[in-house]
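Summary for the steering committee. One of the milestones for this cycle was to obtain a three-dimensional model of the protein with 5-amino-5-deoxy-1-O-phosphono-D-mannitol bound, which we needed before selecting residues for the alanine scan. The sequence and ligand used are listed below.
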Amino acid sequence: MCGIVGGVAERNISNILIEGLKRLEYRGYDSAGLALINQGQVLRERRVGKVANLADAVSESQISGSLGIAHTRWATHGKPTEENAHPHISGNVAVVHNGIIENYQELKDDLEALGYVFTSQTDTEVVAHLVNDALKTAPSLLEAVRKVVPQLKGAYALGIVHTDHPDELITVREGSPLVIGVGIGENFISSDQLALLPITNRFIYLEEGDIARLTRHTIEVFVDGQLVERPVKELDATVSNASKGEYKHYMLKEIYEQPEAIKQTISQALNGNALREDFLASAIEDFSNIQQVQIIACGTSYHAGMIAKYWFEQLIDMPCQVEIASEFRYRSPVIVNNTLYVCISQSGETADTLAALRDTQKRAVAKNLNITTMTICNVATSSMVRETNHSLLTLAGPEIGVASTKAFTTQLAALMLLVLKIGQIKQTISEDQIAKIVTELWHTPKVILDTLQNDKEILRLSELFVEKQHCLFLGRGTHFPIALEGALKLKEISYIHAEGYAAGELKHGPLALVDNDMPVVILAPKDDMLDKLKSNMEEVQARGGELFVFADEHSGIKGKDRQHVVNVPTVDPILAPIVYSIPVQLLSYHVAVLRGTDVDQPRNLAKSVTVE
Ligand code: M6R
């Protein structure tokens, strides 16, 4: 959601903050702001819209300072206006905030009664006033913040500076991610290490409840007022893998990175055509006890989980449930003994998934149940990875485009590895079957490369979608979730209303929508359901619907009037959903570009959904 950058240095850090914000813009991009402390003054600039607008304002005003905080906003409380943009100021205090202060109204009433005047509709402004007020009695900025934190309810990360403390940056992590970037003679904070990679690769990952005080030369982390040690970790991520390179958009780059990302992800687990002995070795005992799997995730990650359900049940006879985290966390689900709870998340910070995980863990402890938790995640240092018993990383590299692409297909690859590992431990799959699937997995990057060759043809077809208002995606079996995913991709970046359906459900309702103006995208791999799917296609054609079919090259489906066919190279039906993700991603991408939307940063959305 919102993104925070801050720093304390000897040099002017205005450009560092702006560059950091640009790298965080995927988190929120409706307004941005920055405050620098210089000679006892807070110098602030805020602008509606992208960070580029703020950058222009800063280069015009030439404000500078060696202590500062900056923010890119995804509006929750109050519209995206300049007044609501962070940092918020009270007296000599400036604050940036990511997350939500749930009890802000109550706090605001109290502060107004004390005479504080609010200039924004945000929940954040209460924090600035509270710290200002606490400073009346607190002996230091740190102590003032410590006094304020227990009054705040919700999930938040904060960066706080004060004009009288030109070498001090206070930061708080409570439910929203925050890292400290360790420099030489300078230190920084950010919601995501990505923002700081150009200046350091040494990071301290704060824990929930940590309050830290940064000066140029020191970093102190406190828990309940006691100094604690937090390790400094060195990262080998490079700056370049987070850049767009020669591509027009991050999304396109990330689509094209999929063959390599999948290769990286499976390489960590495979040795030739077998699973490596050390792959998830620390989980063997836990996995041998499980009787069922419960997957929890949101959005695209949820779709990956839906496909894994087919795999768990068909391939290794393991019962598997999948649920959207925002539902799971609030419906008091029965926590079942000997269950493996799997969180799937690109970011590892999605608020609903994290809350569902924490709640499950609490309930299991309360009932003395034996459960195992694990995360499939793209960020090794994320909260979910740190808080689950086991983790399996998707080695996709940073995914910047809001629309998830390479994270999704690597999640699928990782989930298949997990299925095989559990089946091997439980002996519900033979070594021969494992070897066969592993061989196909190794082959997948090449099949994706071949599928990407259809890009131009898909671009040509996408022109037929530009004027459409609605679209249907249909698939069967593991391609039902791909239909859902295709619809999600199309709607989130092109703003065309799209629905994904299991093709067998067509005549139970959605067929009523089909007319001359309704494009229907069909996912047609060569599997056991192909003939049934062909019947569904007939049903659409008979009602005047226009078909866009991504079909196995040997499916026998041919192009004809109002039936456009893109041939997809033959792939083992088990792994076909990985490959069929590619054409739906390309279709959405091209439609969005042709419609002129902001592909990487679609309206109203943010990459990492750290508020519920
Ligand atoms: O980081 P996560 O995988 O937990 O994020 C979950 C969803 O917010 C995410 O997949 C979202 O649906 C994507 N923007 C879809 O492209």
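Key point for the committee: The pocket of 5-amino-5-deoxy-1-O-phosphono-D-mannitol is lined by residues 298-301, 345-347, 350, 353, 402-404, 488, 492, 608-609 (CB under 6 Å).
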